[in-house]
Amino acid sequence: MKRLNLQLLTGIFVMLGLAAFSYQAVTIGGGNFRQQPGYTLMARFDNISGLRPGGIIEAAGVRVGTVSKIEFDPDNYQAIVTLRINEGVPVQEDAIAAVRTQGIIGEKYIKLTAGGFPDLLSDGMQITETESAVSLEELVSKYIFSGSSE
Amino acid sequence: MSTDNSQRNAISIRNLVVDYGQRRILSDVNLDIPMGQIMVIMGQSGAGKTTLLRCLLGLKKPTSGSVHILGTDIASASLREINKVRIQMGVAFQGGALFSSMSVAENIQLALREHTNLDEKTIEIMTRIKLDMVNMLPAEHLMPAELSGGMTKRAALARAIIMDPKLLFFDEPSAGLDPSTAAELDQLIITLKNTMRMTIVVVTHELDSIFKIADHIAVMSNGLIIETGTPQQITASTNPEIQGMLNRKPRETIVDTDTHLRRLTGGV
Amino acid sequence: MLKSIENIGAIVISSLEQTGRTFNLLLIVFWELLQPPYRLYPIVRQMYFIGARSLTLIIVSGVTIGMVLGLQFYNILERFGAVDLLGAGVALSVIRELGPVMTSLMVVGRAGSSITAELGIMRITEQVDALECMAISPGKFLIAPKLVAGLLSVPLLTMVFDFVALFGGYFVGVYMFGLPEGSYMNGMTDAIEWVDVRLGLVKSVIFGLLITLICCARGFYMHLGKAGSQGAEGVSSVTTDAVVMSSIAVLFSDFLIGALI
Is the whole model's pTM more than 0.80, yes or no? Predict the structure, then answer.
């Protein structure tokens, strides 16, 4: 009886712990293993400075996907970003993917702007229209540099 | 001749030396303990009795010398070999050393559960038989903290004999007990020898029980065995140190009151 | 002068010895764990003691810490007009740092100290000797279940702690300061990645092993300590020692893991 009680309580403890863990891992951790239904697109950028895998993709300010992979293309010296777009979010052939910053010093994310073409991109295709990250430092240094040379 | 010896003797100790740091606790101990008999190791506190016992149990590696128990040299054997011997021995420690988180019955069953594949029913019956032998049947489900001193010793004895060992070690059976409980335990030890044909090694300094139970006596002093023999031989010994130990008996009570008084007044 | 140098040397040597013994014990116990027979019940029993019995303490302290964090972060963030980050701040600090560390320190205080005291008392009352004389390995019988239970219980407790702490922060943010519910939750979900949860998990597993190992070793080897500290006094001094040492070990390894991962 005593033994049963002890095992029961230990079991409850383990279940509680596991439940709390899965809550964090799945809901908050926004998991790599929680694959939302969707499709993947590719995009090439000259500069993504600061964008990381797991970064957010927004369209009209709404979260519509995540950055699942970032690779470096040594031939063209470009970044190849794999985008995971949620199901039911259409991306037109001439849609624009831009690397933007949340606020001035916030995290980098990808902003999708709808295009005008009726044709939609499907799984594995590439977004051709991209805008690279605007680096604050570069802007500032360019301004200072050009200012001093004149 | 030596092989002959090891068959007649349950334990034979040769040239045993134990150092503890710089101090020499045992110097050149030699002792044979014959099968099926009760050997009492006596001596004053600090004579090295406890260290000798720890060597016999394989708890202390001696500095040099050999300790053959049931044919295995405990002093040089590996842990695996020592454990093979240990399964054939039972130990009742001075303070009982019952596992405080387990009931009396669970304490007694532990060795059976760990070393045999007996089913639950058999284990329970064997436990009760052993508890009955030491007159502890009603205490089966008590926890060690609920036992009196005498009961603790008896429970420890029951735990020691659960595997029907060939060898039984008993550390200070009567220490801290009132005379009648001590006498009960002495009787129990003799019964065990007679009914289960065990070789029993008792370490004690209580003269009363020594002469009641011993077949053989080994007298220790300053890390040496100064005399071995039957109780008669020991009583007849001309060694002044032994005579001193034996004859101190009437004076011992005086010394005891003295220490008692000193304790009361805080002198310790 | 010479005496004090000698003393320092002696302290260094004895603490090295102690560290060696502790990790040696770990190796012995894991080796023995691999040998049959395998028993589950002793582990469950220890998990009950280390884990289940600590739940109340963990929940109460978790909620409190979460509320304190919520309050403090709100006050700071308000100055920068960034109260939207409250959820992120609370969640990041709890999941990455405070959860594993606070839980481990709680477990050290509640279960670790009594593990050391229990093993120390078993040592001085010859219970460990009795086990050895029954040909039962004390490492496997006494220590292995505690180590495994510590290894499993601390991460589980940490997860519970994290969860209730996030709830505490949520309570302060949403009910006390009237933050919109979505702002707290979104801040949290956006800021926390799987790597953060994983870091907390890795930390808590390592802490769980470390504290049970240190507490077990201190109690189990108490007879090898200073000659003057045997008996009841010895038990109390090794217990204090074990609590101090395992707390330091937790904090120091927290830094190390943070730096390495």
Answer: no
